[in-house]
Every structure is written in structure tokens, then in C-alpha cells.
Here is the input.
Amino acid sequence: MKKTSSNEKQFDKKLSLQRKLKNCVMPQLINYGNEMLRVSPKGIEYSTSGGRSWNMRYSGSSCGTFIDLLPYGNELLAVTSKGIYYSTSQGRSWNMRYSGSSCGDFLSLADGGRELLANTSKGLYYSTSGGRSWNRRS
Here is the structure.
């Protein structure tokens, strides 16, 4: 049996961590008006103290697990485990915007100016309808 060196063990630990993190998407902390919003394991939290303290804004389960947030025009968009949701109430309530499976799992959203961009498990997609329909970026 081959003896494993200390360097090999460290390399194996780093490789294992990289594999675990490869599929992780870190939700961003966003400024929204005079508040900060973030995704927590329990839902959406907000801070009016520059992040020194946090309060729960939304803790419902009907939207699935929140992954990412994006201010978009007069709406707040969210990537969840069930698709794209939108809020016109600063995240207090949410409505389904898109739940199709042809794009794969949504990972993050970005405001591309004239279009909404989505990183998904099947690649980069864009929407010119505020996220109501999506096309693959070739």
C-alpha cells in the first residue's frame, strides 16, 4: 500500500473542496433603495443599518429555495429552485414569472441593458420580455 504524503493529502482536500464549490452559486448582497437585501437559508432578509443587523422580509416556501436576487426596473427578480419570480413589494410577496424547464436550472441573473441575462445549467440565455420567455445565446 502506497503511503500518502502531507502534500498529497492537502491537494486532495483542496480538490474535494473545489468539486463541492463548483456547483455552488453564492447569492449576491444587493442594495435596494435604502435597504440591503440578501438570501438566507430561511428566505429573504433586509437591513436598514448597513448590514449590522438583519430582519426577515420573506420566509414563505411556495417559491422554493431562493438563489439570487436582481433589481430590474420597478421589480425585484429572484432565481429560485422553482424558476424566476418577481416582486413589486420590495420582496414581501412573490409571483411566478417563468417556470419552464427547457433552459435548465437558473443559477443567476444579470441586467444586460436591453435584455435580461441568465446563467443556467444549460448555458447563457437572454430575455427581451423581462424574463417571461428565454432564448439561448449562441
Observations:
- Residues 18-22 have pLDDT under 50 and may be disordered.
- The chain has one domain: 27-136.
- The domain at 27-136 is CATH 2.40.128.630 (Lipocalin).
- The chain is about 10% helix and 40% strand.
